[in-house]
Amino acid sequence: MRSLLIVFIAFFSVGYVEASQVAIIIDDIGYRQSDEAVLSLPNNVTLSVLPHTPLGTEVAKTAHNKGYEIMLHLPMQALNGKLLGPGGLTNTMDESELKATLARALDNVPYAKGANNHMGSLLTQLDEPMQWVMESLKQRELYFVDSMTTRFTKASGKAELLGIPLLRRQVFLDNDISDSALEASFKRLMSLAHKQGQVVVIAHPYPETIKFLNENLPRLEKAGIELVKTSYLLPYNLANKEKKGGAASVRLR
């Protein structure tokens, strides 16, 4: 009888559905002194740092010590021809040059657990460069978030093919930094979280965005939505939690 009771409890523990979860990634960190204001946000927000920038390395170190999760914000060639800055990947690079550039970028952003693309509307459409990027990330056991700067991206497909832990951006919070637009984006991410269970949001270290998030993030908990570090949304992370915690809750999908 006791053994049946244990099985019964385990079954319902595994079947338990967690609260909706949102990961918010703050991109483009490293150039402006004002970027340091991201450290005023809760440390469940993920910080994605541009390589070889005046403040990037120090912000990454400080943020890591405060409990933030760090990502590499990897510059990739865009269709609009915008300048990439140092560490950028382009379609003129061969395999060795691209991988060496990516390795230097990763070395410059300490504690990075994953990477996402900065721009990249051109490069993410190309098979070979995306294959080389994902091979480099796999070698370092990093995850990838596709920023989805083009609907023709092949980055996600290459990541999946190589078995790299993958997420895709679903909401850009601050394409418009007016109060009304930020509020509309915030309501959208909450609605998606309730519908889908998980949402990946990208925002930027604009003073308006930081102020809005500091004032409005408490609304997530009141709405039954958990703000989590980006890696918490990865499927493999649930398996790790289950191994460590025994009857850890698992999302039904």
Explain this structure.
Strands 1, 2, 3, 4, 5, 6, 7, 8 and 9 form a nine-stranded parallel β-sheet that branches. The two termini are 31 Å apart. By secondary structure, the chain is of the alpha/beta class. α3 packs across α4 (127-139). It is built from nine helices and nine strands.
Strand content range: 15-25%
The low-confidence parts are 1-17, 237-253
End-to-end distance: 31 Å
Secondary-structure element series: HEEHEHEHEHEEHEHHEH
The chain-level mean pLDDT equals: 89
SS content category: alpha/beta
Helix-residue proportion: 25-40%
**Radius of gyration in whole Å, from Cα?**
19 Å
Main sheet summary: 9 strands, parallel
The number of helices is: 9
Task: Give the total of beta strands.
Answer: 9
Query: What coarse outline follows from CA principal-axis ratios?
Result: globular
Keywords:
253 residues; alpha/beta; 40% helix; nine-stranded parallel sheet; disordered N terminus; globular
Topology of this protein?
Elements: H1 2-14, E1 20-29, E2 46-49, H2 56-65, E3 69-76, H3 95-108, E4 112-119, H4 127-139, E5 143-146, H5 155-161, E6 166-168, E7 171-172, H6 179-196, E8 198-203, H7 207-216, H8 218-222, E9 225-227, H9 235-245
Parallel strand pairs: 1-2, 1-8, 1-9, 2-3, 3-4, 4-5, 5-6, 7-8
Helix pairs in contact: 3-4
Short description:
The protein is an alpha/beta fold. It is built from 9 helices and 9 strands.
